[in-house]
Design a protein that fits this description.
binds adenosine-5'-diphosphate; Nucleotidyltransferase, domain 5; alpha/beta; binds acetylphosphate; 14 helices; six-stranded mixed β-sheet
Length: 392
C-alpha cells in the first residue's frame, strides 16, 4: 500500500456534504466538491476535478445517504479514480471521550451515536458518512477526527458551568481541528516555538469561535456544550440570556427544542440582516445591515478583551475562516480601539486582498495580527495518515 497516496476527507454538515481528495505528497486536491441543500427540493452537487470546469447537478437529494451515493457516482462518471488509502471524517462532537483522532471501529461508532444528543444536527449525519464510506471502501481505514478533541486541555475553571453537578454538562469547544492547524502555522510564520506563544484564534466561518491558547494548548474557548455558544455566527445567535427559553415558552408557547433550533438556524446575521452570508451583509449599506455588523464585531471585541485578560500577554491574534480570511472590515472593526492592548491593524496591509498567510499589523507591533487561511481538510488528512501509519 502506498502510504503517501490519497486520503478522502468527508465533512458532513447538517444540510451539506463537503469532500476533498487530498494528495499527501503534493498537498494538492485532485478532486473536491460539495452537495448542498440536502433534503430541500432544489439540491446541488458541484464536483471539481483539478482546474477543469466544474461538474454540476441540480436535483433533490433526499438525505445524506443519497447525497453520498451521488458523490460516489460522480467520481465514477467524472473521475478521478477514487482509491483512498484512508478516509478521514470530520466528527463534530467527541465529548470527553476523544482527545485525539481514532481509527473507527464499532465501539467508536457507538460512542459517536451516544454523543448525538449533544450535536443532533451533526453527529448523526457524521455517522452516515462513516457508514457509507465503510461500505464503499471495504478494508480501507476510516479515521474520525473530532472538533472537540483539541479543547480537552481546557482547565476545569474554563470548562465548568456554574450549574448543578448532577446535570453532567460542561463546556467542550469546537473548531479544534482549525485551531490546531492555524496555531501551528502562526508559530511557524512568527518563527517562534509554539510552546512559548500566547494566541487568540478567531475562526470566523459560518460557525464562529474565539479561542485563547497558551503554549499551543486551548485555555478557553467561546463555544460550549454545543456549537451554539459564544460569537454571533451566520445563523447562530451565540451568547443569549439562558432565561430566553423559559420566557419564550411562557409568552409564546415555544418548546425548548424549537427555541434551540431557531437559535441555531434562524439566529445570528440571518436574524439581524436577513442573510447569514457575510458577503451579502457587507454588500448592503443600510441601518439593518450596519447594526448586524456592529453586533457581530462588538461580540468579537468583547471576547478578545476577555481572553487578553485571561492570557495576560498576547503574542498574536489570528483571523481565519471565510470571514476572518477575506473580510478586512471585520478584522479592522473587531480590533478597533484595542491599540492600547498592542493590537493594531495596519490599513494597507489589511486591505491588500492577499490570500497568503500574512501579518496585517505594522512591523514591530507589540502583538501581531495575522491572517492564516485554515485548511481543516489537510489537518484531518494529516492526522488520519499519521494514525494509519502508526497502526501498520
Ligand atoms: N470575500 C469575502 N468577504 C466577506 N466574507 C466572505 C468572503 N468570502 C467568504 N466569506 C464569508 O465566509 C463565510 C463562510 O465561511 P467558511 O469558512 O467558508 O464556512 P464554513 O464554516 O461552512 O466552512 C460566509 O459568511 C461568507 O460570506
Ligand atoms: C462545529 C461548528 O460550528 O462547525 P461549523 O463552523 O462548520 O458550522
Ligand atoms: Mg470551512
Amino acid at each position: 500500500m502506498d502510504m503517501a497516496g490519497r486520503i478522502l476527507v468527508l465533512n458532513t454538515g447538517s444540510s451539506s456534504v463537503k469532500y476533498e481528495l487530498v494528495d499527501m505528497r503534493t498537498r494538492e486536491r485532485p478532486a473536491r466538491g460539495l452537495v448542498e441543500r440536502i433534503g430541500e427540493e432544489q439540491g446541488r452537487l458541484v464536483h471539481h476535478v483539478g482546474d477543469a470546469p466544474p461538474y454540476e447537478r441540480r436535483r433533490r437529494f433526499a438525505d445524506h445517504g443519497e447525497a453520498l451515493s451521488a458523490v460516489m457516482a460522480t467520481f465514477r462518471d467524472a473521475g478521478p479514480e477514487l482509491d483512498p488509502v484512508a478516509v478521514g471524517h470530520r466528527v463534530v462532537h467527541g465529548g470527553d471521550r476523544f482527545d485525539r483522532a481514532v481509527l473507527v471501529d464499532d465501539g467508536v461508532i457507538a460512542a459517536i451515536e451516544e454523543l448525538a444528543p449533544l450535536a443532533p444536527l451533526h453527529n448523526p449525519v457524521n455517522l452516515v458518512g462513516i457508514r457509507v464510506a465503510r461500505a464503499a471502501f471495504a478494508g480501507v481505514p476510516q479515521v474520525a477526527v473530532f472538533d472537540t478533541a483539541f479543547h480537552l486541555t481546557l482547565p476545569p475553571e474554563a470548562y465548568t458551568y456554574a450549574v448543578p453537578r448532577e446535570w453532567g454538562v460542561r463546556r467542550f469547544g469546537f473548531h479544534g481541528t482549525s485551531c490546531a492547524y492555524v496555531s501551528g502555522r502562526a508559530a511557524a510564520f512568527l518563527g517562534r516555538d509554539p510552546a512559548e506563544l500566547n494566541l487568540i484564534v478567531l475562526h470566523l466561518g459560518n460557525g464562529a469561535s474565539a479561542t485563547a491558547l497558551s503554549g499551543g494548548r486551548s485555555l478557553d474557548t467561546s463555544m460550549g456544550l454545543t456549537p451554539l455558544e459564544g460569537l454571533v455566527m451566520g445563523t447562530r445567535s451565540g451568547d443569549v440570556d439562558p432565561a430566553l427559553a423559559g420566557y419564550l415558552s411562557r409568552v409564546r408557547g415555544l418548546d425548548a427544542e424549537h427555541t434551540e433550533l431557531a437559535l441555531s438556524r434562524e439566529g445570528g446575521l440571518h436574524a439581524l440582516a436577513g442573510s447569514g452570508d457575510m458577503r451579502e451583509v457587507r454588500a448592503r449599506d443600510d441601518a439593518e445591515a450596519r447594526l448586524a455588523l456592529a453586533v457581530y464585531t462588538r461580540r468579537i471585541r468583547k471576547y478578545v478583551g476577555a481572553y487578553y485578560a485571561l492570557l495576560g500577554r498576547v503574542d498574536a491574534v489570528v483571523f481565519t475562516g471565510g470571514v476572518g480570511e477575506n473580510d478586512a472590515a471585520t478584522r479592522a472593526e473587531s480590533l478597533a480601539g484595542l491599540e492600547r492592548l498592542g493590537l493594531v491593524v495596519e490599513r494597507r496591509l489589511n486591505e491588500s486582498g492577499s490570500r497568503q498567510e500574512r501579518a496585517v499589523s505594522p512591523p514591530g507591533a507589540e502583538a501581531a495580527v495575522l491572517v492564516i487561511p485554515t485548511d481543516e481538510e489537510w489537518e484531518i488528512a494529516r492526522q488520519a495518515l499519521a494514525l494509519v501509519a502508526e497502526g501498520r
